[in-house]
Amino acid sequence: WKRFLQTTGTITLVTVATGTAFYYFAQKDRTPGPQLPHDPSKKTLVICGSGWGATSLLNSLDTEDYNVIVVSPKNYFLFTPLLPSVAVGTLNPRSIIQPTRYVTRHKKRQVTVIEASATDVDPVAKTVTFADTSEIQGAVSNTTIPFDYLVFAVGAEVQTFNIPGVREHACFMKELEDAEKMQRHFMDCLESAAFPGQTPEEIRRLLHMVVVGGGPTGVELSGELHDFLEEDLRSWYPELSESVRITLVEALPSVLPMFSKQLIDYTESTFKEAKIDILTKTMVKEVKEKSVVLQMPDKSIVEVPCGLVVWAAGNTLRKVTRDLMAKFPHEQTNRRGITVDECMRMVGANGNIFAIGDCTATSYAPTAQVASQEGAYLARVLQQIAKKDELEARLKALQTAPEPEVQEERAQIEKRLAKLEKIRPFKYSHQGSLAYIGSDRAIADLPFFNGNLATGGVATFLFWRSAYLTTLFSLRNRTLVATDWIKVKLFGRDVSRE
Ligand code: FAD
Ligand code: NAI
Question: How far is it, in rounded angstroms, from Cα 312 to Cα 172?
């Protein structure tokens, strides 16, 4: 009895302590304290975007140094790596977004958040024009504001290569609404296939899901679709589940070209086991309402009936980025994106405009990992610049004073300024590549003691889950995602169509 009471007491104590700590941090997150107001003596920093680059910058930035304004058509940060999980209902859409105001309300100085799309940047007048593109608009929905420094972090948009029918008939996998649309469309295909009197041929068409693009987005989505089929649809649509087919189409000779050969082989064999068809060296030439037109490896053209096409064929620049680049016709000639120097300054823009993430053309891959490291780095650069600006202003104020003690102070400031002049360049530290491939398996290419560790399987899947859980920006998101995973394990995915 004594031992039993001791054990129960310890468990109760640990549970109460953990619960209290959790409650304390959750409340701390929920009730931000008062903030300093905008200070007219500080410079204005405008940040365009609220994605990986911008949010990482905001998290690390000392807002005491600037009056910060964030302009983005989405008033939230989207945790893109878990987007395919939303598309099949494993995760709730709300679980992987973090309202930008949750981030900015915890900063020392007030940050203005404006839900709008930047439409034009004038690098000479140093202004940004933006428009409210949401459904409801007030009397004013378009305006221009000045900036001292601009951080351009607008990401990229889906590349369609102007292939006919893609915009009209395919679903994308880039934004939250894309995942929600795909989920609705997928469920619609299932319910239409269940409609009485449907011919076997039409059922096969409706239940054929085609994923275009064998990059990590297409592979992860195919894996998630397979899980949905195996773990839930077999129970709730037993008469249809055998007819569901997933085909992944890739123009290159293999999927996941950024992963090591061993992991590509592992993914291909896992997909084979999971009965996901991979068509490599095959290019989608057109998307029609009820089919896709494929150019096969032997150059023959085949039309394949299908119910759903998901387009995950890569990224291209946004119009606002192309327009900004066009203002520097000699310096900005890279078609992949904005050319920046080693400190993320846009080349040609006099050091007032910085660009980070997918809208830039650097030697790094367009990934969240790169964008977030660039954001955190830029926060340090901006802090250094703020110090420099402050000292320069002080030096200017002392310019005319002849007293010897002032001269001494001037000399000190000049010395400090010389030190601040040199900005340490950005250095990317690759933490490895991870991707979920379905069937509770993931693959990982990890830097390991100067070498590379390529691993795949169930243990890697657990590593994938814990890595993403810790990478999520807030306690709120971590709790919501973990709860969703538990809910799906217990009750399965929801198959009702919104
Ligand atoms: P984004 O994160 O796309 O942010 C751009 C921001 O700009 C958004 O807030 C957008 O609303 C805003 N914006 C758009 N237009 C305007 C405008 N006109 N004016 C102002 N703001 C604007 N990378 C990884 O490293 N690991 C992964 O596991 C991974 N998984 C992914 C899964 C999916 C499904 C996708 C689509 C991508 C994934 N990526 C992953 C890639 C990663 O999401 C991008 O590289 C990353 O989002 C780039 O960050 P960014 O800040 O440049 O752009
Ligand atoms: P991607 O550019 O990596 O892959 C797109 C694929 O589509 C390419 O392999 C291309 O050959 C193929 N393609 C293009 N047009 C085609 C056509 N007409 N027919 C057939 N195939 C066609 O794009 P993705 O997967 O969206 O990734 C974008 C970026 O985000 C990459 O840098 C990627 O590394 C990163 N990312 C990383 C993830 C991870 O690390 N787990 C997950 C998702 C994205």
Answer: 6
